[in-house]
Amino acid sequence: MSGRSAGALAGFCALSAMLQTLPAWAQDVARPALHPESITVSARKQEESLQAVPVTVTAVGAAEIARFQFDKPEDIMTLVPTLRVQVGGPGSGGSISLRGVGSSNLSAAFDSAVALNFDDVVVSSMRVLQFGFDDMRQIEVLKGPQSLYFGKSASAGVLSFNSADPADEWEAGGRAAYEFEERGYTLAAYVSGPVTETLGFRLSAQFNDIARLFRNAAPGAAHPVRGEQNANIRTTFQLDPSDRFSANLKLNHIRFENDGPLRFVVVDCGANGMADPLVLLSGALRVPAGYACDTSGKQYFLPDSPPVLAKKPPLGLDNKGGASFGRSQIWFGRFKFDWELADALTLSSVTGYFDQSAHEQEQYSFGGLFQGVGFGLAGGLPRHDLRQVSQELRLSSSYDGMVNFMLGAFFETRHIVYASAQQIAAISLLGADPITGSTYDWYKRFITDTDAYSVFGSVSLQLSETLELTAGARWSTETKDSVFTVPYVHALLSATPAFVASGFDSGQIRFKDNDLSPEASLTWRANRDLTLFGAFKTGFKSGGIDNSAFPSATLSGLLSASPAVRAAATDLVSFDSETAIGGELGAKTRLFAGTLTLNGSIYYYVFEDLQAQHFDPLRAQYVTTNASELTTKGADLDFHWATTVDGFSIFGSLAYTDAQFTKPYVADPDSHPERDINGRRGARAPRWAGNIAADLSVPLGNALQLGLTGNMQFSSAYFTNDLALDDYVQPAYVLFDVNVSVGDPDGRWQLAFIGKNLTDRRAVATSGSRTYLPANGDDRVLDLTRGRQLSVEASVRF
């Protein structure tokens, strides 16, 4: 840990110790306690106590979500030190990593190594990270492989969101917030209660409008100030006709709009300290970069001038007048029931439906200044649609005897359309297509249909009153059928041998793989205050066909009569499955009469064929590979202390992570065979990270209640990319959040001031090479985390 991080931690601990000297005049009030004792989690697809389940899991309850005004998935990082959430990107639209393991945000074909679980349904799109969430009951972060209970997309962990259900009595509430730094406001409301004795109802809605997410310094920018809007609405029905049957239906609709999918992106000018020019048309044209090499997050340079973007797209596509934009919507439905077929024998069903449509336009040259105007060059006009239907059935027992079991089956079908008109080769600088008049380079369509089946089961043996052995496995098979078509290629490109011609059709490209993922855990619940566990785990994430490939002539091999040539061409657009194996040891304790919970674990996992991708700026194409081997080991520790001062608690976490490549790995063997990063640490894996927080409730007479909550998050340095030994390193940093509230002791109303990232410290989430670099150029694109947010919020509850 750096000296700065250690000093900040020591100062925060000193403040907490000082608060301990306060007289015990605080009292228990309606303000919810942030204590894990009563928290239950569904880490093994059944409700279990957080303190008893043999899984390393962090649970963030509704009280913490409200207190820190969490309304975006990226907000959770402040309380989970090994979690990294990135929002934005040209392909999947976002990425998640946990304990140094994650998946690229460049390709919409990649599943996430950290599964996204929404109300018991694993969704396959990272674009949901762009959307806000509201009316959450609990958020859970499961660390390490979770393939047995959550399937193929959980090789590194699970980020699970659980929304609130209908209340037993009628209630309603609302909140309104205004944020000063980004000039955004949020309106949210809900109503909930019993319609009849057996039917419950809940309706919630939220609208968020940010007017000034950041300022765009590019001269002539279409959006000098970029903003975004988000609207969520959810309806929930709970049916309990008998003691043996319950059903729950959730229906969601989410809409999201922005002024371009790129958010907090800046350019670092590398070791040479200068902005490298943009080199175009094989070096025939050099355009000044224009940006100021400011990586502080105070200035952004995103050329998105409408005269450049408004060129004619192919085949009648709508580019919305040329300015950058982003528009997405999701329809999500989930029907779940639990049916007690006999005493201690329950059949559970979860049916999920997910329908996403996303349409956007952006410039990805990250620079370019021509006659004093920002000159956008590398552009994309993609549409990403995904329809997913899934069904899971589980039969589980809860006998009083020695043996219990869970048996299950799962099916998922997906239809993905990723279509994009692109300006990468900058051929429009030489003129429009003489046949169609279009000035885009090409228009490509990838259609992928996926069918995934799996069966799984586990058996729990109660070897004694305190000792439990659980073992199980999941067998999975997945088939992906892709078709790659190129309806249009600019005539000046198709006339060269480097590109396919208009009308290219690859025919069916198939990927299929099977996997068996076993798991076992041994749990010793010595007493109410001590649980020890050890777990052996494996993980699996299927490979597939990459839909970010450009229509280069190498794809012509897919049509070859030679099996060897077809196989070689298929390899260029495919990636292998990713697997993990390892385990962890953990302890969950309650100390000092239950006032202090202290949970810790150590782990060791080896990931084979880690799916990776980057953009090669010299060849102007995406490179998809499988990293040979990444080994991640470390320790997690978290605590919660309900101090001797009533209403005052301290909680936090600490993580040590050692993630490094343990076999030779060259990300781009064709262009840079010398870049073997074997032995180097993995990206987004700080050696030390953690947080410490304090919460205090103080009565102000009989009619008011004062609440104070503070959180400090710290991280040591980490790599931000997996390309070379000299990739950009994010230095150590410390962030501070605070909540100060006053309100009714019974929670009927509250006014709050909420500050996030008070010192406005921006960290780099990921990095990559800038497009159109000269041969000796070293400029890098840095994707920053969000800056300071200062909000006031009023809330009421009836």
Assign the CATH architecture: Beta Barrel
> Looking at the structure, what is the overall shape?
globular
| Number of discrete domains | 1
Radius of gyration: 27 Å
CATH class division: Mainly Beta
* CATH fold-type name: Maltoporin, Chain A
Give a structural overview:
The chain is mainly beta and 798 residues long. It has a single domain (3-797), classed as Maltoporin, Chain A. It is built from six helices and 43 strands. The chain has a 22-stranded antiparallel β-barrel. A five-stranded mixed sheet has the order 3-9-10-7-8. The protein is globular, with a radius of gyration of 27 Å.
Describe the secondary structure blueprint for this structure.
Layout: H1 3-19, E1 40-41, E2 48-49, E3 57-61, H2 62-67, E4 83-87, E5 94-98, E6 101-102, E7 114-118, E8 121-123, E9 136-143, H3 147-150, E10 157-163, E11 171-179, E12 184-194, E13 199-215, E14 225-242, E15 245-258, E16 265-268, E17 278-280, E18 285-287, H4 306-309, E19 325-342, E20 345-363, E21 369-370, E22 373-374, E23 379-397, E24 403-423, E25 442-462, E26 467-489, H5 491-494, E27 504-527, E28 530-541, E29 544-545, H6 563-572, E30 574-575, E31 578-591, E32 596-616, E33 621-642, E34 648-661, E35 688-700, E36 704-715, E37 718-719, E38 729-730, E39 733-743, E40 749-756, E41 764-769, E42 780-784, E43 789-797
Parallel strand pairs: 7-10
Antiparallel strand pairs: 1-2, 3-9, 4-5, 5-6, 7-8, 9-10, 11-12, 11-43, 12-13, 13-14, 14-15, 15-19, 16-42, 17-18, 19-20, 20-23, 21-22, 23-24, 24-25, 25-26, 26-27, 27-28, 28-31, 29-30, 31-32, 32-33, 33-34, 34-35, 35-36, 36-39, 37-38, 39-40, 40-43, 41-42
